[in-house]
Structures are given as C-alpha cells and as structure tokens.
Amino acid sequence: MPDDLFLKIINREIPADIVYETDEILAFRDINPQAPTHILIIPKEHIRTMNEMGPGHTEMAGKLFLVAAELAESEGIAQEGYRVVMNCNRAGGQAVYHIHLHLLGGRQMGWPPG
Ligand code: 5GP
After folding, report:
1. Strands 37-43 and 82-85, how do they pair?
2. Which of 2, 78, 84, 99: CA 20 to 30 A from 108?
3. Does the beta carbon of 93 sit less than 6 angstroms from any atom of ligand 1?
4. Whose CA is nearest to atom 4 of ligand 1?
5. b vs e for 7-25, b when ≥16 Cβ sit within 10 Å of the residue's Cβ?
6. How far apart are the CA of 55 and the centre of ligand 1, in A?
7. pTM
C-alpha cells in the first residue's frame, strides 16, 4: 500500500472531521483551513495526481464536483459563492499525493491566486 496520508484517513488510522462519505468518496474538513469553510473531497481510490486520471475516472471526477456543490449548499455558502480547486504537483502547490478537491468559502476569494 502506498504511503498516503489520505488513505490513512479513509481507513480511520488517523482522525478527521468527516462530513460526507459514500463507497467511492470521502469529504472532511481541512486541518489547516484557509477559509471559514475548507473541505477536502477525495476519491477512496488512490490516484496520486490529476495527471494519473483517465477515461475510467470521468464518473468519479464528476461526483467530486457534485459533492462540492452539495456541501456548499449545506455549509450555507452556495449563494454567496465559493471556490473549488485541485492542485497538481509541485508548481501547482500539491502537498498530499492523493487527489483532492478543495472546497473553500465563507470569505471573499482573491484572483489571481498566489
Ligand atoms: P494540497 O496542497 O495537496 O492541495 O492540499 C493538501 C491539504 O491537506 C492542505 O490544505 C492541508 O492543510 C491538508 N492536510 C494535510 N494533512 C492533513 C491531515 O492530517 N488532516 C486533514 N484534515 N487535512 C490535512
């Protein structure tokens, strides 16, 4: 098994504030939130980076976005607005090598990102 921090969260080897779970997807609050709402939405399948995604992942990738929209609604940030982002590799700012969508909201976002 790869050394993957988020697999440890999936397997309950380390604790997390889990807000959504299906057989395929898990969502939990970021340990170092960058906004009042900061949730990570991940597939349970180990995929290191967005570069490893293929045609077999289209349904799962779509679900990540639908879960983000659903959680934005339940967090009360859907109407005001929010951001979803997936970082890829070093220049993209990726630190954990198990793909994840960030859902950020509850404050005004800047553009362009730093
Ligand atoms: P990345 O930079 O890879 O796009 O994002 C990784 C995110 O995972 C960061 O926002 C970081 O705060 C979060 N993170 C790192 N370790 C943990 C952890 O043990 N638990 C939780 N809930 N989040 C983590």
Report:
1. unpaired
2. 99
3. yes
4. 94
5. bebbeeeeebeebeeeeeb
6. 26
7. 0.97
Ligand 1 atom closest to Cα of residue 5: 19
Amino acid, res. 16: A
Question: What CATH number is given for 5-105 in this structure?
Answer: 3.30.428.10
User: What's the pLDDT score for residue 89?
Assistant: 98
Task: Calculate how far, in angstroms, residue 96's C-alpha sits from the geometric centre of ligand 1.
Answer: 7
- pLDDT tens for each residue of 38-82: 999 999 999 999 999 999 999 999 999 999 999 999 999 999 999
Ligand 1 center to 10 CA (angstroms): 13
100 tagged catalytic: yes
> 84: part of which helix (H) or strand (E)?
strand 82-85
Cβ-based neighbours of 2, under 8 Å, separated by 6 or more: 46, 48
Q: What are the domain boundaries of the chain? A: 5-105
Determine whether the shortest distance from the Cβ of 85 to ligand 1 is under 6 A.
Answer: no
φ/ψ of 83, rounded to 5, equals: -130, 140
